[in-house]
Amino acid sequence: MDLRQRKLFTIREFTFEENGIHIKVKNLISSQEFDIPFEEMNLKKIIRQKKTDALIVIVGAFFGLVLLISLTNKIFSNTETTWGTVFVFFIFTTLSGFIAYLNFKRQILIPTSNSGILYIFDGRPTKEITERFIDNLTLKSNIYLKRKYGSIDRDLPAEPQLRNLMWLKEKDILKENEFEELKNKLLGKRDNINPIGFR
Prior knowledge:
Layout: E1 3-7, E2 10-17, E3 20-26, E4 31-37, E5 47-51, H1 54-76, H2 83-103, E6 105-111, E7 117-121, H3 127-149, H4 158-170, H5 176-187
Antiparallel strand pairs: 1-2, 2-3, 3-4, 5-6, 6-7
Helix pairs in contact: 1-2, 4-5
């Protein structure tokens, strides 16, 4: 399952390939395409982020408070506050709120070793579709990496293969029992197979 996301003027498309994902990002002024291999993704350290610009929120709250005071003064007391002043503060409050909304980010961040951070809009188009994509990404990545780095060839040196198995275990792609089973197979400790180097 691929993923297409839209937020205001930005479109992000994620397409699965055999050894990773292809990403397209388009907005009003630019577009870019790049590939990230499964090896580079750290799916063990996915970050879910919700944030907005604090300064804009503070400015919006300030204008909102001034608007409330101006409106209260205009309605309940005989001050010289004009409807024009109230309207100006209403415009500023609304504009600040809109900018805060535009800057609000709810994202899933996936660290990568060479490409920085992979950004995915959380909940676009829906929360269910986003979660399904992340689960599918993890599954496809694990299958690919296990097939590429977790197969044992007794005709090749054991040390690099053991390093690959340990790397897969560190990434939680191999469980403890799978790791031990493959390690024992590699080192010849199963089915009365002699260790590598001894025939």
